[in-house]
Write the structure tokens for this entry.
Amino acid sequence: MTTEDSSGTASGGGTAGIREQAVVRVSGLRKEYGDTVALDGVSLEIGAGEAVAVMGPSGCGKSTLLNMIAGLDRPSTGQVCVHGEDLGRLNETRLALFRRRRIGMIFQFFNLIDDLPTIDNVALAAQLTGTPTRQARRRALELLDELGIADRRNVYPAALSGGERQRVAVARALMNRPALLLADEPTGALDSHAGEQVMDLLIDLNELGQTLLMVTHDQVLARRCASRLVTMADGRMSGERTLERTV
């Protein structure tokens, strides 16, 4: 499997693959929903090739942080830069296009389109950026093959196992060779066997140079897949430490 770092070339992953330029730079991030403060002065940098896990109790702000970095929501104050782009300077149209091209997302409940077969669920991510259908389907098939599910290319999501659905979601997230891969509880809806498979896949991707940010409650996922752990509480970063991956 091949992936690309923020300069567009294949690279080694983990802490050894960190580049001087940050793929993610978040500064003084604050988000308010009415009287509720979801984020309160969060700053974070993620270097190219890093795998960072964000953990904390429900309601601590970790999913809000992920949404800000993904460009799915805008901060009340503060700055979010991804791959050198200040997301706050982009209008909604340009932000959507940037997100499709440079950010890959994996969700807990897969978010596949039920009435599209596997290959079209994956190819759609590239077609939305203007890639011709034939070219998009060719890349989709390559990814499905690399993920071991090419034989399921014409199967609809309802007929896939949970692990297969998450692999389809990973293929979709990788379609446009994103600078950053975001994972929101990627093993949360899977049984232990499928969860192990997805963890192995995330490790492989990071070792090939893919920058990865995960939000999770799963300490096993964080210890196995991340090189750095960030903890949050009450909308703030409460701790940060380097991790040695467990086998």
